[in-house]
Amino acid sequence: MKKHIILLSTILFSTSFLAQNKGLVANSESPYSKLQSVGLQDVKWTNGFWKEQFDVETKNTLPYMWNLYHNDSVSHAYKNFEIAAGLMKGKFSGPSFHDGDFYKIFEGMAATYAVTKDKKLDQQMDKAIALFAKVQRKDGYIHTPVLIDERWGTLGPEEVKKQLGFEKYNMGHLMTAACIHYRATGKINFLNIAKGVADYLYDFYKKASPELARNAICPSHYMGIVEMYRTTKNPKYLELANNLIDIRGTTEDGTDDNQDRVPFRQQTTAMGHAVRANYLYAGVADLYAETGEKKLLDNLESIWDDVTYRKMYITGACGALYDGVSPDGTSYDPTVVQKIHQAYGRPFQLPNATAHTETCANIGNVLWNWRMLQITGEAKYADIVELALYNSVLSGVNLEGDKFCYNNPLNVSDDLPFHQRWGNEREGYIKLSNCCAPNVTRTIAEVGNYAYNLSKEGLIVNLYGSNTLNTKTLSGESLEIEQQTNYPWDGKITLKIVKAPKDKYTFFLRIPGWSSGAEVAVNNSKIQDKIISGTYFKVNQKWKKGDVIELNLPMPVELMEANPLVEEVKNQVAVKRGPLVYCLESDQLPVNSSVNDVVLNLNSDFKIDFTELKNRKLMTIEATSFIAQDNSWKYSLYKPISAKDGKSVTIKLIPYFAWGNKGKGEMTVWMSH
After folding, report:
1. From its phi and psi, is residue 335 left (phi > 0), alpha (psi between -120 and 50) or beta?
2. Is 628 exposed, middle or buried (0-12, 13-18, 19+ CB in 10 A)?
3. How many CB atoms lie within 10 A of CB 335?
4. Cross-strand pairs, 325
5. DSSP letter assigned to residue 92
6. H or E stretch including 611?
7. What's the mean per-residue pLDDT of the chain?
């Protein structure tokens, strides 16, 4: 009888929280969050851009990644779990963040299952969860490199056992994936494992010295532990989240590379490894949503200004440097100069051909800005979410969904006389650095949850794409709408009301910061109120079934220039249309010409048209350009500007996210004029 009572209480626990905490960020009871997530299952893409991308995700990317990570001749991630569980003897193989890679794929499966209810996904996830349970130590600890060594003594003295390993990063992704799985399925089998992990971390950090606690070089567990607090309401987890911030920067050996040279509350600019930085900022934003500590928000806003206005690429990408020297932790004494890598550099230091711009950093930019949007309700953060998603996140995967980029440069040149650590072609598996592929896998599965938010005032529309929304308002009333649009190729968006509250209800339409001249109409009647770019436009009235809100966003081709302090692109332009950045590939040029030779005609007609590439329709922009006849730079570092006549060349630009899908070649975003 007691067993049945416990089971019943578990079911009640699961159901009650599932009703409240349904989105990627379960902030329905976060006291300092102005916006709240809709449910993972509430948004379904129906056609157009994101439906096409979601179809690639479900038909190609997820199956490919699941099979890849079960293929121990390529990736040893799943095999590591089997060895750690004692199913066979063996050695740990692969990078120390391998566990986390698999949890990210799992999270993508859970988010997809929330929408599709695919029974095969459910079965695959249950099988993996059963294996995780066998791996987990009694005290809640789970990290296969250490557990394999404990069980079989086969690991040896590799880096994975030392401080600054990825065990907390892996645990963070486990906790996040478990929360998403719980919200998608209502099952608590994975959440129970995550509770063990969270309890272990709580006990560990209660006793650990700051030096020992430093072994968290990519703090995904900041986001993970806050989600565990939101999901279980266990106050220990919020205490732990506060402690994680308090101990940063309190050791003698902290580094700017790891954002812990000084305490977070003294940090006002972005520094160091861009993935670690953006994950940290996202985790701090989560903590602010629960505590409301003003200093945390002040610092986040200062850091955001630094990134957005001085250190972010036009594509929303972050992390300019492969390697560099910390701008803050340096000294004239060469023995204490701090090396940083994959990192934010100095303000306006934004190289193109050597841009690091790791896909994970760009996803981190989305995670951070999404959380800033939740706690402030300010549209500027949604603008960055959109910018990064359409450009520097989607560029991380090919159009077919089975090859991936680690870094996302803005220029690819054949003549660069050196080899970079990560190539400029997408690969099916990036050996020892495949973290980005699982990350983009989960992100694309979850884009639907970024489309809308709820607030006490009404529905916030963040992203545009053809979909259906079936949700409940914060007062519990049904809300159903159908969004129809050919965005981002076209700026006409319609929201058709299917069900709405009986009383007046407000829709907040994001007017993108890139737009001008937006118009809004209700049932074909134009609204005369002033519409301001970079804000949410408020439409409030009583609604009936069949009412239509129409938003029109003009999408002219825009020529963009950079702040003149960005030396690398001075006197160059980039082409943008709507949220999309465009690029030029060398297949558009005459033989023996380089993308670096092209001078764009700023007075081009800039004709738009569609082309098909890998079964995807993409909008191209046709322009005229000039290429000098004397364009050889062999044995030349400098030379006079050629006085000889050049030739006019018609070129077609494609969306940046689609570059590299036609084989090896050159590419550039910025062009001379």
Report:
1. alpha
2. middle
3. 5
4. 339
5. -
6. strand 607-613
7. 92
Give CA–CA dist 405/395, Å, rounded. Answer: 7
3-state secondary structure of 257: coil
Average pLDDT over residues 374-383: 98
pTM value > 0.85: yes
Cβ partners under 8 Å of residue 531, min gap 6 = 511, 518, 519, 520, 537
How far apart are the C-alpha atoms of 631 and 642, rounded to whole Å?
Answer: 9
Helix residue spans in 189-265 (DSSP H): 189-207, 220-232, 235-246
Q: Is the pLDDT of residue 12 over 50?
A: no
In DSSP terms, 510 is beta-bridged to 536
Structure tokens that stand for 231 in this block: 């999901």
User: What's the CA gap between 243 and 227, in Å, rounded?
Assistant: 15
For 39, the token pair is 């449910």
* Closest by Cα among 314, 307, 337 to 324: 337
The answer to whether the CB of 642 falls within 8 A of the CB of 662 is no
Both tokens of 428, joined, read 């099916």
Residue 518 DSSP code? -
- Using alpha carbons, select from 2, 142, 30, 139 the residue that is nearest to residue 10: 2
Q: Give the C-alpha separation, 537 to 521, whole Å.
A: 12
DSSP state of 531: -
CA distance 469 to 454: 12
Residue the block writes with tokens 């120390």? 96
Q: Within 10 A of 438 (CB to CB), how many other CB atoms are there?
A: 29
Q: What is the pLDDT of residues 195-243, one digit of tens each?
A: 999 999 999 988 877 777 766 788 999 999 999 999 999 999 999 999 9
Find the radius of gyration of the CA atoms of the chain.
25
Query: In this structure, are strands 616-628 and 321-325 parallel, antiparallel, or unpaired?
Result: unpaired
For 495, list phi and psi in degrees, rounded to 5. Answer: -115, 115
Q: What whole-number distance in Å separates Cα of residue 619 and Cα of residue 598?
A: 21
Q: How far is CA 661 from CA 91, 360, 509, in A?
A: 37, 20, 34
User: CA–CA separation, 18 vs 23, rounded Å?
Assistant: 10
DSSP label of 236:
H
Strands 478-485 and 467-472, sheet pairing: antiparallel
Instruction: Dihedral sign for Cα 246, 250, 253, 257, please.
Output: positive
Q: Is 255 helix (H, G, I), strand (E, B) or coil?
A: coil
User: Could you tell me if 193 and 133 are in contact, meaning their C-beta atoms sit under 8 angstroms apart?
Assistant: yes
CB 352 within 8 A of CB 569: yes
Separation of alpha carbons 312 and 223, rounded Å: 23
- Amino acid in position 260: D
Q: What is the DSSP letter of 404?
A: B
